[in-house]
């Protein structure tokens, strides 16, 4: 229409689709549903949900946004039993259609498709007909679950590309797929994805593609010349796959790397195939790296584990089938712990490359069972039953059984790359060198050694442990165990030296050596020592039992990566976990990382990308638990217990070489250089670093980009965290002030160290140690500040040890709480928080008509909303309110005064009572008034939330009471002659408060009162009152001692509160004032020094020659009124009150 602007609004999520409606509606309700799924997808907001009702939908659907497409998925427990949708699931019917049922558009992310039946999409004329297709899209974070996909011309689920693009984070689970003629589920050029809990019947294959089609699940990389690496993080597990074994069926699970062009480099890396059942197929699992016209194809780190592969023509086939015109590529395949049972042939390897097929059940233990295995297959040891309760091996030379080697070194010499050598319990007095990729496994390889008990004098039980002893001390650099190859696992050993020589001998226990430049790179050539696992070992001691003088032996675990120009460039992708690394008692560290140095001519820092030291127990070193010297990048030190590292009593206690938890410095040869190489991008997280002689973590002056997070650093003799720009570690001062940057320490617990954190020296480049959001062992800002030295930013800091809340200042400058120390929950802000905790006593004063009212919030009180939810703490305020501004009181009630504390019209609750001191006017002095409160100030007045008895006795014009709920407060009374007329602003019908007729209390000037007491024992000198303080008193104390304390503080002029016998916030404030008066630390606790001052003050107050015990005390009007107030609160009769009043004032009592 000309001149008319038409605005179409997107429907809000979710939207609804129902094929049964006659015409499409707006999709916002089931009754106004869209008629087609595509309309629902087009209308739904990004991230919304399209709910599809039962019915049949004949359409091709395109998904071009993030959404949930939901039919009826039925039960969704995590397992295969609930595979498929509900029986009432909507149906996508492709009869007479071409194209796929559901197609994803390029770039789509975050899609969930569940609860559909999809069938009859069989026209494959365009070569891509399927149920769900994502081709050349780069899609990610896609989930396809609980669907029934059947009678499909091409794929049930097709994910892939032919242009080199990758897709990631696909989850395909709990689907039923049958009759998908190419593949039930295919993930080509995909990473970090999983295929799980699916039930698949292999399709019949496609006559035009007989070699590739007829697959249950396929994981592949296909490269047409761009270079593609895929498979990383792809896992296929807990699926059931059945076939009929009829050609052109290819395999139950097909693992494929295919290089189509001469320039193709196709790498399928890191796929795991686990806990699947495959039966009745031509091949159970088929693994092929196929090179066409000279391209490169590789399958790396393929793990086939714990599957049941039964009743297939061939259980597992690795390599091209006979007669293929193409070439085999490169393979790294592990087939372990599977049940390969009842197949016509077990495992056929045509590649010439060894397949590790240990610990499988082959359905036989007869000597001839290897006849169902062909090619280069290491099948030993093999299982002796279907559950693999025991194993047997004919490779005795590797396992140490039968005619095996007497030494570990002999077995290593005989082993092939990739072998696993099992070493039995015993003591092996030898040095070993691991110069090829292999797994070397001791007797207790599966046991984490954290907390492992160390016997006296390291006398291990050789019937249980595999112990490698230093055979004899060396006179030159040597190691007990030396690893110079990539792809090594070393686990389950004790490596120790009990006869080490002084440090010139350089005896180390276990070295990872990247200095040779000749390390065996295994299957993948690189320029670092790579992929080492050091797991579940005991590395230590390195000592000399006859001379433990701090000089014998060097390092425990030694990373050698100085990055000399001819060396490898670091140690990468290496894991050190589950070890006890301890007692390097000589001139060495438990863990030493030797990095790059300017003086070596190193071209760059040593690369430690992917290397992690985690979950180890590291203690007892003469030097440091972990020392990093020189330039090291990207190392992670995580979740270790690092403690008890200390120099000897004979060592120079000032020498920083000894007794640190973690130490990160320049190489000694670089100590004079301001441009030396230092470490970068280290992560130190979740460790316990404690009880070391000197520092928890020590940094030299050249460091950058480190993150220190989640550690518990405590009990160290010097600093929790020290950044030393003068690097006194090397002896003397070697300063660099402008070459340190970006060190962050957060969410750590740093406490009970001599200093929490400090920077020594003044950086000239603006460096500040970023140490916010840590727990420093206290919530006191004064105490925290005392734990910090130098250029350290530490605020805000954690207000709890778990850092569930942080110290913060209210940000509203000039507000009543601007200077209050408070805590809000972590990740909350003062303007949007569920609670606020006061970390110090806070008194808010509000001047009113004739007097100043106050609100006192004690230390630790937490404020929350009565009905939950968040509050704006900056709006918390005290305010005097006029009585006539309130309404909603009962008939006959007179409102004397009003006060508001909190946030208007919001009820707040306090975790403990707060004290309000409201000025009501001197004309009410001596009367008892009722206290009521209301959230709004206009009704629902109640005494609930006022601490019983919800009354106050007015003295000097003030009414004092305590409350646990915040809102408007009013003091009221009912005149004796009240006839029911309204008062205090009138208004009707709130809940009636407690009604008490005002009771007058006589007043008079202060007088001296004689207090006769018993004569004190001979020689005892007492003061004004015969009382000596002998107990420690603190917040929460109560009784006679507190009563006397309050009297004494009143006499000192530092306390004006009531004499209650309870040590609350006012008493604590008085104690602090007393301590300040006498130059005692203001802790607010009556401890030994404060008691001594109180008692000496009493003695000093006695006149010379006076027999003490008959003291004269002058009571102020406030004290007298406080005493009378207590009598009123405890409902003492008026006659008695009058007599007490007279006695206190020195009047005769009648």
Automatic annotation (TrEMBL):
Keyword Repeat carried by entry: yes
Gene3D superfamilies in UniProt: PGBD-like superfamily/PGBD, Single-stranded right-handed beta-helix, Pectin lyase-like
Peptidoglycan binding-like domain boundaries: 1039-1094
Right handed beta helix domain ranges (all copies): 598-765
Keywords: Repeat
Residues spanning the signal sequence: none
Coiled-coil ranges per UniProt: none
Keyword Protease annotated: no
InterPro entries: Beta_helix, PbH1, Pectin_lyas_fold, Pectin_lyase_fold/virulence, Peptidoglycan-bd-like, PGBD-like_sf, PGBDSf, SCF-Subunits/Alg-Epimerases
Transmembrane domains' residue ranges: none
Protein's recorded name: Peptidoglycan binding-like domain-containing protein
């Amino acid at each position: 229409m000309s001149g008319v602007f038409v605005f179409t609004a997107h429907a809000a999520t979710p939207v609804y689709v129902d094929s049964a409606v006659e015409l499409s509606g707006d999709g916002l309700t089931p009754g106004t549903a869209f008629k087609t799924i595509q309309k629902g997808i087009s209308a739904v907001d990004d991230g919304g949900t399209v709910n599809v009702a039962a019915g049949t939908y004949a359409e091709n659907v395109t998904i071009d946004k993030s959404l949930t497409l939901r039919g009826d998925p039925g039960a969704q427990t995590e397992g295969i039993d609930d595979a498929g949708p509900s029986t009432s699931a909507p149906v996508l019917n492709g009869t007479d259609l071409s194209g796929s049922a559901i197609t994803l558009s390029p770039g789509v992310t975050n899609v969930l498709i569940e609860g559909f039946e999809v069938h009859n999409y069989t026209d494959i004329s365009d070569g891509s007909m399927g149920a769900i297709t994502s081709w050349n899209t780069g899609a990610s974070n896609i989930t396809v679950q609980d669907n029934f996909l059947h009678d499909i011309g091409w794929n049930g689920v097709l994910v892939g590309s032919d242009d080199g693009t990758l897709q990631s984070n696909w989850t395909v689970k709990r689907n039923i797929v049958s009759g998908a003629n190419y593949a039930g589920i295919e993930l080509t050029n995909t990473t970090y994805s999983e295929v799980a809990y699916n039930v698949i019947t292999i399709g019949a294959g496609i006559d035009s593609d007989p070699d590739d089609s007829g697959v249950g699940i396929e994981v592949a990389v296909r490269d047409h010349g761009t270079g593609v690496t895929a498979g990383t993080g792809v896992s296929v597990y807990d699926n059931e796959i059945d076939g009929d074994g009829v050609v052109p069926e290819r395999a139950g699970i097909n693992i494929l790397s295919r290089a189509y062009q001469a320039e193709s480099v196709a790498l399928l890396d890191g796929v795991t195939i686990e806990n699947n059942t495959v039966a009745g197929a031509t091949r159970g699992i088929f693994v092929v790296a196929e090179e066409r016209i000279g391209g490169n194809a590789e399958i790396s780190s393929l793990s086939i584990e714990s599957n049941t592969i039964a009743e297939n023509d061939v259980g597992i086939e690795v390599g091209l089938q006979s007669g293929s015109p193409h070439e085999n590529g490169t393979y790294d395949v592990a087939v372990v712990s599977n049940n390969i049972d009842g197949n016509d042939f077990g495992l056929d390897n045509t590649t010439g490359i060894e397949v590790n097929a240990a610990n499988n059940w082959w359905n036989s233990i007869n000597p001839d069972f290897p006849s169902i295995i062909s090619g280069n297959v290491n099948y030993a040891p093999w299982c002796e039953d279907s559950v693999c309760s025991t194993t047997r091996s004919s490779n005795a030379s590797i396992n140490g059984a039968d005619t095996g080697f007497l030494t570990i070194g002999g077995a290593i010499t005989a082993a092939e790359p990739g072998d696993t050598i099992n070493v039995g319990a015993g003591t092996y007095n030898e040095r070993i060198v691991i110069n090829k990729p292999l797994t070397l496994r001791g007797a207790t390889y599966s046991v984490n050694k954290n907390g492992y008990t160390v016997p006296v004098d390291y006398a291990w039980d050789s019937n249980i442990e595999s112990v490698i002893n230093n055979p004899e001390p060396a006179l030159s650099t040597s190691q007990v165990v030396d690893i110079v190859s990539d792809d090594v696992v070393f686990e389950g050993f004790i490596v120790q030296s009990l006869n080490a020589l002084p440090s010139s001998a350089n005896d180390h226990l276990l070295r990872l050596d990247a200095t040779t430049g000749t390390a065996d790179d295994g299957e993948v050539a690189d320029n670092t020592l790579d992929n080492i696992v050091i797991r579940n070992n005991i590395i230590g001691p390195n000592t000399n039992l006859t001379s433990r003088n701090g000089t014998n032996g060097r390092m425990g675990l030694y990373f050698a990566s100085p990055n000399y120009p001819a060396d490898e460039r670091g140690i990468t992708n290496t894991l050190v976990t589950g070890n006890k690394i301890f007692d390097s008692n000589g001139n060495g560290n438990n863990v030493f990382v030797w990095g790059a140095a300017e003086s070596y001519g190193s071209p760059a820092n040593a690369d430690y990308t992917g290397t992690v030291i985690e979950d180890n127990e590291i203690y007892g070193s003469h030097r440091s638990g972990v020392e990093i010297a020189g330039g090291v990048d990207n190392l992670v030190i995580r979740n270790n217990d690092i403690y008890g590292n200390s120099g000897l009593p004979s060592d120079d206690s000032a020498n920083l070489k000894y007794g640190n938890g973690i130490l990160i410095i320049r190489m000694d040869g670089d100590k004079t250089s301001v441009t030396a190489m230092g470490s970068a991008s280290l992560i130190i997280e979740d460790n316990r670093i404690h009880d070391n002689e000197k520092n928890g973590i020590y940094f030299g002056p050249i460091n950058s980009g480190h993150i220190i997070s989640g550690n518990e650093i405590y009990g160290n003799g010097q600093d929790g965290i020290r950044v030393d720009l003068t690097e006194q570690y090397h002896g003397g001062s070697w300063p660099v002030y402008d070459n340190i940057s970006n060190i962050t320490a957060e969410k750590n617990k740093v406490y009970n160290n001599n200093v929490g954190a400090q920077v020594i020296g003044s950086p000239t480049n603006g460096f500040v140690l970023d140490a916010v959001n840590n727990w420093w062992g206290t919530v006191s800002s004064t105490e925290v500040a005392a734990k910090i030295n130098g250029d350290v930013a530490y605020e805000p800091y954690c207000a709890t040890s778990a850092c569930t809340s942080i110290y913060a200042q209210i940000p509203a400058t000039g507000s009543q709480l601007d200077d209050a120390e408070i805590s809000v929950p972590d990740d909350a802000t003062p303007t949007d928080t569920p609670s606020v905790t006061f970390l110090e006593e806070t008194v808010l004063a509000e001047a009113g008509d004739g007097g100043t009212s106050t609100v006192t919030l004690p230390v630790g009180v937490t404020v929350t909303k009565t009905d939950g939810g968040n509050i704006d703490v900056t709006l918390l305020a005290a305010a005097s309110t006029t009585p006539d501004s309130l309404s909603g009181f009962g008939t006959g009630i007179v409102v004397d005064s009003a006060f508001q504390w909190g946030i208007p019209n919001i009820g707040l609750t306090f975790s403990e009572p707060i004290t309000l001191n409201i000025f009501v006017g001197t004309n009410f002095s001596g009367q008892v008034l009722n206290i009521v409160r209301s959230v709004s100030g206009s009704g629902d007045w109640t005494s609930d939330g006022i601490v019983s008895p919800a009354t106050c006795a007015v003295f000097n014009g003030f009414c004092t009471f305590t409350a646990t709920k915040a809102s408007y407060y009013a003091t009221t009374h009912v005149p004796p002659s009240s006839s029911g007329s309204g008062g205090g602003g009138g208004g009707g019908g709130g809940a009636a408060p407690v009604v008490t007729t005002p009771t007058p209390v006589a007043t008079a000037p202060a007088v001296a009162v004689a207090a006769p007491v018993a004569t004190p024992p001979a020689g005892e000198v007492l003061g004004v009152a015969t009382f000596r303080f002998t107990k420690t008193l603190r917040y929460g104390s109560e009784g006679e001692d507190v009563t006397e304390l309050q009297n004494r503080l009143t006499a000192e002029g530092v306390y004006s509160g009531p004499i209650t016998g309870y040590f609350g916030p006012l008493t604590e404030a008085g104690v602090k004032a007393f301590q300040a008066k006498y130059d005692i630390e203001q802790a607010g606790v009556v401890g030994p020094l404060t008691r001594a001052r109180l008692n000496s003050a009493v003695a000093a107050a006695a006149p010379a020659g006076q027999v003490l015990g008959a003291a004269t005390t002058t009571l102020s009007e406030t004290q007298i009124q406080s005493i009378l107030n207590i009598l009123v609160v405890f409902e003492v009769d008026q006659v008695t009150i009058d007599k007490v009043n007279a006695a206190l004032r020195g009047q005769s009592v009648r």
